[in-house]
Amino acid sequence: MSGSIARLLLLGVTFHALCIFSIFDIYFQSPVESSIPSTSYTSSPPAKRVVIFTLDGCRVDKLFKAVAHYADRYDLNPDSSSTAQVRSDSRAPFLGNVMRHRGSWGVSHNHAPTESRPCHVALTAGMYEDPHAVTKSWKQHPVPFDSVFNQSSSAFIYGNKDVAPMLARHAPQATEEHYTAREEVDMVREDTTLLDVWAYRKMKELFARGTATRDPELYRKLHDDKLVVYCHFLGTDLTGPKYGAGSMKYLENIAVVDELIEKTEIMIDEYYGNDGRTAYVVNSDHGMDLRGARCNKQN
Question: 3-class DSSP state for residue 109?
């Protein structure tokens, strides 16, 4: 009798051990495949360079309200018969004009965890959080991964100290610059939009330096194919938790970014002689609930 009980206990322990091992074997695997060779999609892409703007923690409905004259609760169902309503209190019409007349747009849905670091990896590399990040206390992506940056000829990244270094980490051709923790605290204390203005000024300095006489090497990089410029606007991600995503401050922050994007497009188009070979991408890494918590996956 005791032998049967012992065998039953041994069988139970073995079964549970196999079940636990199977969970790690199935789910604790890196999605990165490093042995796949790079291939070109086309020999003549429509753009020579891409400029990417990320509005960190920007709610899609508030973006529509601030920049596209859309109603506050516009139905995002594509089968809906609802029409966009023009609002007289719109504060930032540039992106709205782009959406209506010359740009493609949509609503993306990201994946938990809705934090800036893994969401930026998803945006630039097309993959979600690597399970091995738990070994780095969820602060870094531990496995080298393929992204638009290491596939570029040159990349310039400006933004927050937690995002910019991480994006440039596995791309030796990338140059990143970020504000320090002390600088971030000082800017947030005065006005969160200063974080966005900082990133814009860095881009402005980049193209001001990139002349054939002032910096020939930078000039060459800026005129090569497959150039990527990445601008991380953190203001909305801090304004939301501080004032609420339904606040006037949050909408005003979106309006400030709208103006900065417009100025950037004008500046870059003039730099390249309006050659029409620059692609601009505006997106958000994750959404936010009305109280400012970063838990809304719609962006």
Answer: strand
- Under a CB-based contact definition with an 8 Å cutoff, are residues 94 and 67 in contact? yes
149 within domain boundaries = yes
Q: Using CA of residue 20, residue 26, residue 31, residue 32, what is the dihedral sign? A: positive
Domain membership of residue 275 (yes or no) is yes
Rg of the Cα trace of the chain? Answer: 23
In a domain, 20, yes or no: no
Burial of 176 (0-12, 13-18, 19+ CB in 10 A): buried
Instruction: Quickly list DSSP for 34-59.
Output: TTPPP--S-SS-S-SEEEEEEETT--
- Residue 228 sits in a domain whose CATH number is 3.40.720.10
Please tell me the total count of domains within the chain. 1
H/E segment holding residue 232: strand 227-233
pLDDT digits (tens, 9 = 90+) for 70-123: 444 444 444 444 444 444 444 447 888 888 888 888 888 777 777 777 787 888
Tell the residue number behind the tokens 């966005």, with chain if given: 196
Residue 223 lies in a domain: yes
